[in-house]
Specification:
This protein has helices at 49-62, 68-76, 78-89, 104-116, 118-134, 143-150, 174-194, 196-199, 221-242, 253-263, 271-274, 278-307, 309-313, 319-323, 325-329, 343-346, 360-370, 375-378, 417-430, 485-497, 504-511, 526-546, and strands at residues 9-13, 18-22, 30-33, 39-42, 98-102, 158-160, 165-169, 214-215, 338-339, 350-357, 383-393, 406-414, 437-442, 456-462, 465-471, 476-481. It is an alpha+beta fold. The radius of gyration is 25 Å and the shape is globular.
Length: 549
C-alpha cells in the first residue's frame, strides 16, 4: 500500500533550501452525456470500508514482487546499507547481520501463534478490560478479533532482536525495501552496541500477580526508550532517502523542519487505520512519530553525538520527556506518584488484577478522545505523573470477567489546579460513554484534620457503582472507580495522608509488578506489533514520496 498514490508528491530543491509540493493526478469521476447534451457525473458503485479493506488484503497476499534474483541483489547490498547506517549514527559495526527471506504466510503464522498463546491471551484480556474500564475502548470491543481482521501481512521488513536476524519479505519491491533496510539495520547496530533486549528492559506486561500498589517512577521508561530506538531508526531512514541529494537531516535545517511538520500530521489514509480506535492510532504512531520529532530536537541541539550515543547513555525517563523534549534537555526531574500497598484495606474483598502508570501520552489520548479541541494542548502539558491499581472483586460471578467486576484507584498529579480540575471534568464526562450515569452529588469524606479535607469532591453514581472524584492538595486528583464509599474513604486516607515519597529501594520493589504506561503496553503484544506495522509502512511510504529517488 503506497500512501504516495493518495497524498501530494513532494519534490525537494536543496539548492534554494525550499521544499515544494505537487498534487498528484486523481481519479476523475466518470461523465456521460445527458439528454440535454450536458455532462452528468455518475457516482462509482459504493462499497463498504470493510469490503474494500478485504479486497486490498487479498490483493496483498497474491502480489509477489520480488524474484530470487532480486533477493540476491538486495542481500548483497546489506553490508553497504549497514555501513551507511553506521556512519550516519556513529554506532560502530561489530559484525555482519544474519538475514533471511520470509513470506507473508510466515508472518501471518507468527501472529496467529502469538494470539493462540495462553500467556499472551491472558495479557491481552487483562489489558483489554482495564482499557475499557478507563474508557479507551468501547464496552463491546473485541481486541483479539480486531487484531486478526486488521493486522495480517502489513510488515515491510524487520530486525528480530531475539534471533539477531534481518528478515526481508518476498512481497515488497526492491525500491521500498532498501530504505526500510536502513531503518531496520539501525536496530541491528543499536543491538550490537547496547543489547536492545536488556536496554529496553522489556517488562512483558508485568501484570500484578500479588500486588496492590503502584509506582510511576520507572514504569514509563520502556515506552520512552522505545521512542529513542524507533526515532533514531527513522532519522537514518530519512537520511537514506536523502542520500542521492548528498544531504542529511543534520545538515539541512529546512528538511528537518519540514519532516517535523509532516510527522505532526495524522495519517488516516489506510482503511485499517481510519477505522481504528484513537488509542490504537496514537499508541502505534508514538515511537515512530514522537520518537523522530524527539530525535530531531536532539540532532538540532547537539548533533549526531547527542541524538544517538548520548540518547542511549542518558535516555528519557518517561513519555513526558519524549513529548516535551525541552524537559529532557533541561534535565527536568520526573515526578513520583506512588500508591502504597492496599492489601490491608482490600484483602478478602478484592484480589490483585493489574497496576501501572498513566503517562502523559495516556492523558493526551484521553483528553483528545473525550475533551474539547483545546484540551489536548492545554491540559496534557500540565500532567505531572500518575499511577493506578486495578483489583477484581472476589465476589464476582463465575465466567468471563467484565468491567463491572473491576475496581480502579487512580492517582494523578498536575502542575496547576486548573489543569487538575479540567482533567476531572473530562474524565467525568467520559463516564457516560461506557456506563449508565444516574446522578452526581457533592461528596464529603470523614476528616479529622484540615489537610484531610479535599479542595473539591463529588460522587457520581453509575451502573458499575460509585465513582468518586477528589481534587486534593498539591494539585492531586484521586479517582476511586467502583468502590463503595466506606472503602473509598479508607483508600483515600491511606493514599493521600500516609503515602511517603518512595526511596529507590521501595520504588524498585513496587515496580516489580508495574505494567508500564497503560496504553503503550499494547506494544509488547506481538499481535499489536503486526498491527502497528501497518502504520509504519504507511509512514515509510509517505516519507519516501517526499524524497523521490
Amino acid at each position: 500500500m503506497r500512501m504516495f498514490l493518495r497524498i501530494c508528491a513532494v519534490a525537494v530543491t536543496f539548492s534554494t533550501g525550499l521544499i515544494c509540493g505537487q498534487q498528484p493526478a486523481t481519479n476523475a469521476p466518470q461523465s456521460t452525456a445527458s439528454s440535454a447534451g450536458q455532462n452528468t457525473t455518475v457516482a462509482p458503485q459504493q462499497k463498504s470500508l470493510g469490503e474494500i479493506a478485504k479486497e486490498q488484503k487479498a490483493k496483498k497476499r497474491i502480489e509477489v514482487k520480488v524474484t530470487d534474483r532480486d533477493m540476491k541483489e538486495i542481500f548483497a547490498s546489506m553490508d553497504d546499507v549497514l555501513d551507511f547506517a553506521s556512519q550516519d549514527t556513529g554506532f560502530p559495526k561489530h559484525q555482519t547481520v544474519k538475514h533471511q527471506l520470509v513470506s507473508q504466510e510466515d508472518v501471518n503464522r507468527h501472529m496467529t501463534a502469538s494470539l493462540s498463546d495462553s500467556a499472551e491471551a491472558q495479557r491481552m484480556a487483562r489489558s483489554e478490560l482495564v482499557l475499557k474500564k478507563f474508557g479507551y475502548l468501547p464496552p463491546d470491543f473485541n481486541l483479539k478479533a480486531y487484531f486478526v481482521d486488521a493486522a495480517g501481512g502489513s510488515v515491510a521488513g524487520y530486525y528480530d532482536f531475539k534471533s539477531k536476524t534481518m528478515n526481508l519479505l518476498n512481497w515488497v519491491g526492491l525500491d521500498e525495501q532498501r530504505p526500510i533496510m536502513a531503518h531496520e539495520l539501525t536496530h541491528a547496530l543499536q543491538d550490537q552496541n547496547y543489547d536492545l533486549m536488556t536496554w529496553q528492559n522489556h517488562p512483558r506486561m508485568r501484570l500484578a500477580a500479588a500486588a496492590m500498589k503502584g509506582d510511576s517512577t520507572e514504569s514509563e521508561q520502556t515506552s520512552a526508550r522505545r521512542a529513542v530506538v524507533e526515532g533514531q531508526a527513522m532519522v537514518v531512514y530519512v537520511d537514506y532517502l536523502l542520500k542521492p541529494y548528498g544531504r542529511t537531516l543534520g545538515d539541512t535545517p529546512s528538511a528537518m523542519e519540514f519532516v517535523k511538520d509532516r510527522m505532526a500530521q495524522t495519517y488516516d489514509t489506510s482503511f485499517v487505520v481510519k477505522n481504528a480506535p484513537l488509542l490504537f492510532k496514537e499508541s502505534a504512531m508514538f515511537p515512530y512519530r514522537e520518537g523522530l520529532v524527539f530525535e530531531l530536537e536532539l540532532l538540532k541541539k547537539g548533533g549526531t553525538q547527542m541524538a544517538f550515543a548520548d540518547a542511549f547513555a542518558h535516555p528519557p525517563a518517561n513519555t513526558h520527556e519524549v513529548l516535551e523534549p525541552k524537559a529532557y534537555l533541561a534535565k527536568e526531574k520526573a515526578s513520583i506518584v506512588s500508591i502504597p500497598d492496599l492489601k490491608v484495606i482490600l484483602a478478602g474483598n478484592y484480589e490483585p488484577y493489574d497496576t501501572g502508570s498513566i503517562g502523559q501520552l495516556d492523558v493526551r489520548i484521553m483528553t483528545q478522545q473525550f475533551g474539547t479541541e483545546n484540551d489536548r494542548d492545554t491540559v496534557t502539558p500540565d500532567w505531572a505523573g500518575g499511577s493506578y491499581v486495578a483489583v477484581k472483586k472476589v465476589a464476582a460471578k463465575e465466567g468471563a470477567t467484565s468491567t463491572a467486576d473491576i475496581a480502579l484507584l487512580y492517582i494523578s498529579r498536575w502542575k496547576t489546579p486548573e489543569a487538575a480540575q479540567r482533567f476531572i471534568d473530562v474524565y467525568k464526562k467520559s463516564l457516560a460513554k461506557r456506563v449508565t450515569v444516574m446522578d452526581e452529588k457533592p461528596w464529603q469524606p470523614a476528616c479529622t484534620t484540615p489537610k484531610c479535607s479535599p479542595m473539591w469532591a463529588v460522587k457520581v453514581n453509575t451502573s458499575e457503582g460509585p465513582v468518586i472524584f477528589e481534587l486534593g492538595h498539591e494539585n492531586t486528583v484521586l479517582i476511586a472507580h467502583s468502590f463503595d464509599e466506606t472503602t473509598a474513604s479508607l483508600l483515600r486516607q491511606t493514599v493521600l495522608l500516609r503515602a511517603q515519597v518512595p526511596t529507590a529501594k521501595t520504588s524498585a520493589r513496587a515496580n516489580r509488578f508495574a505494567g508500564g504506561d497503560l496504553t503503550l503496553r499494547l506494544q509488547e503484544m506481538p499481535a499489536f506489533q503486526a498491527y502497528q506495522a501497518e502504520f509504519g509502512r504507511e509512514l515509510f511510504a509517505n516519507l519516501a514520496a517526499m524524497y523521490p529517488r
